[in-house]
Amino acid sequence: MPELEQVRVASVDRRGGRFELKLDSGEQFAARAVVVASGLAGLAHLPAEFAAAVPDGPAPTGPVSHSSQHRDLRRFAGREVVVVGAGQSALESAVLLAEAGAAAVRVVARGRRAVAFGAPPDRQPRLRPESPFGRAWSLYALSHHAAGFRRLPAPARRYLVRTVLGPLGAWWLRERFAGRVQVTQGQRVTRVEVESGGRVALSLRGGGRAGELAADHVMAATGYRMNVAALGFLGPELRAEVVSRAGGPWLDAGYGSSVPGLYFTGLPAAASFGPVMRFVCGTEYASPRLAKAVALAHG
Fold first, then answer.
1. What angle do CA 68, 214, 43 make, to 5 degrees?
2. For the whole model, what pTM was predicted?
């Protein structure tokens, strides 16, 4: 088994058919193949209304943050916090904030999204096949036959990545959420403003109604967006060579990109292999195929 090095990759460039890598430790070396499995780093999405309120970007200690920036929520004990979003990240963050002693926690589920939780294992439909996300033919196909996803038209792939496995809380979170977290749903955030005293005001609109909320802190659990340009460790010339379709790099059956020797997995692979690639369980499908492709091409 290869050893794990916990060191940051500073840059990846391609020259003469080989990749040149630099680590922040100062080490440099060459490789015939590079697999980008960098998770969600650098891909956090902050809607324009939030970005306008914090020109310097979200920060865990500032008035507005992104849920990906937090590891310890005890700093919010005794404070009022609004969490914007309706997925697992939003709902679990809200629960953890309440359990950490926040004075008040409210989830704002934007637009038509409603706070919902999945069905527990003993309430899954019995006549449908198993998948990592529950019993459903569609989820079974996306989990175990993801190669077929590549044959769909680009607009269909983009739509499915955006809508399948959308915002939903895990079934085991429901009891911890109920009674501890307030919910505002069916509203979209039209404006975010940081007031002179440091509190944050949200303007909301939906269902023919308008309103406002204020809190000591707003956490945007607003997900992630694939953008090759955001993978800053890839050199600019290398990024320019990566062909993208349907919102991500276009990959062959072995997860190889348009740049020979450059492979992607995880969220970047979702545009080619479907929404299951966004989750850890997607590695069960991706890993053996990617490993085989790298071994055949570069072994």
1. 20
2. 0.89
